[in-house]
Design a protein that fits this description.
alpha+beta, 3-stranded antiparallel sheet, elongated
Length: 114
């Protein structure tokens, strides 16, 4: 999906070529088929080949995936999700990152109050 979001559209061969640590070409085709069946991408026929295109923007897909993650693994609790993320990356967060996160939380609290 990253390759499609960066390029906007690409054939299976182009996607395969752009992948680091490339799986087999047939594995890429199989994954594209699954992504299409799930509605994440669609294809158009161009010059006897399929060109794949994302069906939604990256930000919409990101929000949908995050919503699914929160619902599936954290009982629909944003609090549990944030706690798990902070716990997971506690050693890797710089003071500046922690301050930005705290600022985002403060801004959200102000919006909820007003």
């Amino acid at each position: 999906m990253d390759i499609l979001y960066l390029r906007g559209r690409a054939s299976a061969a182009e996607i395969h070529e752009a992948m680091p640590d490339r799986p087999t070409y047939s594995a890429v085709r199989a994954k594209l088929r699954v992504l299409e069946e799930k509605g994440h991408i669609r294809h158009e026929e161009q010059a006897l080949r399929y060109v794949y295109i994302p069906t939604m923007g990256r930000e919409t897909a990101r929000r949908s995936a995050l919503r699914h993650l929160v619902t599936t693994f954290f009982e629909n609790s944003v609090e549990q999700t944030v706690a798990a993320l902070v716990d997971l990356s506690a050693a890797d967060l710089s003071r500046e990152e922690l301050e930005r996160i705290a600022k985002l939380i403060d801004e959200t609290k102000r919006e909820a109050e007003g």
